[in-house]
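Dear V.,

Thank you for sending over the compound details. I've combined the ligand you provided, NAP, with the protein sequence from our construct and run the structure prediction for the complex. I'm sharing the raw inputs here so there's no ambiguity about protonation or stereochemistry in the SMILES, which I know was a concern on your side last time.
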Amino acid sequence: MISKIGLIGYGKMGSSLLIGGIKSGILKKESIKVYDIDRSRAISAEKYGLRVANSLGEILDSEVLILAVKPKDLPELLEKNRGTLVEKYPLLISIVAGISVQRILSLLEGAPLKVVRVIPNIAAAVNEAMSAFYANEFVSKEELAFVNSLLSGVGKSVIVENEGDLDTITGISGSGPAYFALMINILENVAIENGLREDLARVIAAQTCRGTASMILDGGHSSIELIKMVASPGGTTQEALRVMEDRGFSKIVLEAVAAAIAKSRAMNRS
Ligand SMILES: NC(=O)c1ccc[n+]([C@@H]2O[C@H](COP(=O)([O-])OP(=O)(O)OC[C@H]3O[C@@H](n4cnc5c(N)ncnc54)[C@H](OP(=O)(O)O)[C@@H]3O)[C@@H](O)[C@H]2O)c1
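Below is the predicted structure of the protein with NAP bound, written out as structure tokens.
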């Protein structure tokens, strides 16, 4: 049982992961301590009933350290605290996008630390995240089981054998909530422009997105099957899909996601 967990960076993603883990019962508030250089973030962690460290040093002796800062802030964080990390030998769980395990270890001057790299998504806050993780050879089976239970507690979780797959997953599920939110926003705006009240427009667009995912995940339908089930010949859906394809919708989405994946790969190389 892990009794000391430290979170570095109580931002949007770090807080979502912790709050989701607490809601699911996998994490206990009393075993967590949070550190964030932004005082307002620390205050919001306190308001949620979490223990907050006044300095990073206070949490570096945790058994598990969750790294949840922006990619630009990770190098300095690791380099400055290398000595303590090597001495205390915590399990490092990094949710930082685009920074590989190898890069993390090289920032620690090659010290053989235990590192799990996770690509979660923001829906952890409502226990509906999609997360994927990769672990290096120093991580034990028990530690892997802990990571898996934490991530499964906040949604669905998969382990990948090939770290390179995490770039693809970053472009699909890491960034994905923004793609679907954009689609929902467009549908909401069309609904409002056509006279629907704002609150109705939101629920109609968002519930349609949730229902579609449930048909696939729980109803056992493939995405293509689902399109055929809705788009009857000569009907409204077929008309919309025709316009989408005429204007290159699939090509645009394909190119956009490929750009996200390429960006993640480039960040790993830099
Ligand atoms: N947001 C997502 O949907 C998502 C999805 C998957 C992965 N991620 C990854 O999750 C990580 C966090 O993203 P986010 O969106 O949660 O960012 P965020 O909201 O900016 O949170 C990061 C927090 O860490 C603080 N911080 C920076 N340096 C620190 C240090 N040395 N010690 C302690 N705290 C420090 C930041 O303070 P300042 O603002 O003052 O710098 C900020 O409060 C990123 O690496 C991102 O790639 C995010």
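A first observation: The chain has two domains: 5-170, 176-269.

Warm regards,
I. M.
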